[in-house]
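Protocol step 4 of 6: structure prediction from sequence.
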Amino acid sequence: MLPSRRIKIFACKIPTDMRCGFDVLFKKTKDLIGLDPRSGHAFLFVNKNRSRVKILFYDGTGFVLIAKRLDKGVFSKFSPYYRKNIILTQAEFALFFEGAQINKRFIESPTSTITTTRSNSRSF
C-alpha cells in the first residue's frame, strides 16, 4: 500500500480525533511523535474506539492522507507506556491495517530481572 519498503511507519500512542485533517496531524506528528512530517516516513493515528485510522505521509510533492474504518472489530492497541517510538514494519502494518492484533510486540519489559536459584542439596 505504501510506495516503498524503506518507509518506516511511526504510530502515535495517544488516541486521535478522526476529524483532524492534514494540518492537525502535521502538528501531532511534530509534537507527539517528535519527528519531521516531511521525512518521507508514514505516521499512523488511531481513534479512541480503535475503529478508525489515518496515515499521513509526505511523498515529496505534498502530503497524502489515507483513512480506514473497520466494519467489524477494532485495530490493535498500542501501549502508551512503551517508552520508545512505535515503528511498524511493512508486514506488521499490513496485518494491523487488516485488523489483526499485534499489540504484544510493544509491551514494555521490566528493567530488571529477578533470578532465583535452586539449592541442589537434598535433606534426608
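Step 5 (inspection) to follow. Confidence is low (pLDDT under 50) at residues 107-117.
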